[in-house]
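sorry for the late reply, my laptop died twice this morning and i had to redo everyting from scratch. anyway the thing you sent over, i finally got around to it. pasting the sequence first so we're on the same page, its 381 residues, then the predicted structure underneath. double check i copied it right bc i was rushing
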Amino acid sequence: MTLHWDRATASVQPPLAVVDLDAFDANAADLVRRASGKPIRVASKSVRCRTLLARALSRPGFAGVMAYAVPEARWLVASGFEDVYVAYPSVDRAALAALAADAHQAAQVTLTVDSLEHVHFLAALDRPHGLRVALDVDASLRLGRLHLGVRRSPLREPADAAALARAASAAGLSVVGLMFYDAQIAGLPDSSPAVRMMKKRSADSLGRRRGEVVAAVRAVADLEFVNGGGTGSLHVTGPDPAVTELAAGSGLYGPTLFDGYDDFTPQPAAAFALPVVRHPGPGFVTAFGGGYVASGPPGWSRVPAPFGRAEVKLVKSEGVGEVQTPLQGNGVRDLGLGDNVWFRYAKAGEMCERFDVLHLVSGDHLVETVPTYRGEGKNFG
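ok and here's the structure:
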């Protein structure tokens, strides 16, 4: 695969980033296959490129955007995207006020709330009436005092969700959705029998509670969507009748954190190349740049991984560096100055924060060069 990328980008000066369209499309088809007929809302943070967001949404099985910031959602709607759900709470008063003042955008964007604090914050805007909101409900697994999952929403029980929906409606907000993100299932590879057992227990527990929460909120609000799952749990969440749509984005690019799942294997669709700039000694080369470490708990799982050449590995005492990355192994022997070394990123869209453009390739051909969010001068945090 990397030989094709080398040929397709032979005229491009590295560092550079590619997205392989054949792999991207194959991954999109696999996501749809695992979704059990439910539409997939595309997670924009995992793509961060308008051209590729549109490519995914042009395929049957995808509908709507899951954005991460209100200014981003407004920009996407102004660009022609529809049904944009900002899946994280916002306290950006200027962006929220601008959204509330624009009837078209307010009709296309849904905001997230998970507490009375959020409701009161939105209600204090000049024109909050008619703003669309969805409740983010905690989807973690609780075993006594043990919390398995991400720390995000405090909203968990059916009665509390219904009470918040009533309060939001009373404040003039339109409650149109629910969200359940099962990070302990969707974002965790099947690395051991204990993990597999935990994921099954979590899915069973969440399935029961999710149905109860949905029923309680539907009794007080006219819901348009119930969102659940992620790239790693589409096949688990899709069959749940309480869920009306799923969410995914990382699976389109196939980053390294999605290696090691039992039920699917995404193709590596996104990667970046660094040029060799020196030979510090026998069995070593140094590449330019490379310190693109992904967010999350610190560790080697968050570091870019050399890809496409056997027996090329990072130097553990140095890792990936701010302006240079040393590599070692038998596979570096035939690397000369200016040759590309390819890396896969640990996460998906975060890679785009390092590059202004993505080179879209198919086979040996460079199809198109398109801007990332960064390349369009957009930084949403």
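The first strand starts at residue 16 and ends at 20.
thats about all i looked at so far, will dig more tmrw
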